[in-house]
Specification:
about 170 residues, alpha+beta, seven-stranded mixed sheet, 5 helices, 7 strands, about 30% strand
Length: about 170
């Protein structure tokens, strides 16, 4: 991991910065996949602030792990995992977003380690047209399982990770 980067549990005072990272990472990653009207919606950041405030304060989310990554102060990434809504016996990685300038720094792997339990089966959904993310997840033990769904206008593929080491080289 790059020098000056710290991964820690998210706090309520992080909500505004978390929303900003969420929106900026979506704009960097999903431009061309998600309509510009969604990515550039003036209310997008405020909606994400409400989402993260809810995740950090509503008792419904107490079983979820939420982590952030800082680089010499400012937030650069975030992740959240918890019980799967489809099968509470499984974990699900709901969010792992990292600003593009920090891709390849090891920070994504540290965020993943902060929120998932390596001894539990974990699922996630990844955009079919996001091969970089698919490679990252495969490196950390996730495999496509044939599941798919349309989210908005994006085809998402399901990946599953069985218990074991987090990194495959």
């Amino acid at each position: 991991m790059s020098k000056g980067i710290e991964v820690r549990a998210a706090r309520v005072e992080d909500v505004q910065a978390m929303a900003q990272v969420h929106v900026e990472s979506w704009q960097e990653t999903y431009r061309g996949l998600v309509p510009d009207a969604v990515l550039d919606d003036p209310g997008f950041t405020a909606a994400r602030e409400r989402q993260w405030l809810n995740a950090l304060t509503n008792p419904r989310w107490t079983t979820h792990r939420i982590a952030v990554a800082e680089h010499d102060g400012p937030l650069i990434g975030l992740a959240m995992a918890g019980p799967s809504e489809d099968d509470p016996g499984l974990m699900h990685l709901y969010v792992l977003y990292l600003l593009a300038e920090h891709h390849g720094s090891g920070t994504g792997a540290e965020l993943l380690r902060a929120v998932i339990e390596p001894d539990k089966v974990t699922t996630l959904w990844v955009a079919e047209r996001n091969p970089r993310a698919q490679v990252f997840y495969r490196k950390h033990g996730f495999e496509l399982d044939g599941g798919s769904k349309i989210e908005g206008e994006v085809l998402d593929l399901r990946m599953v990770r069985h218990p074991g080491p987090l990194c495959r080289t």
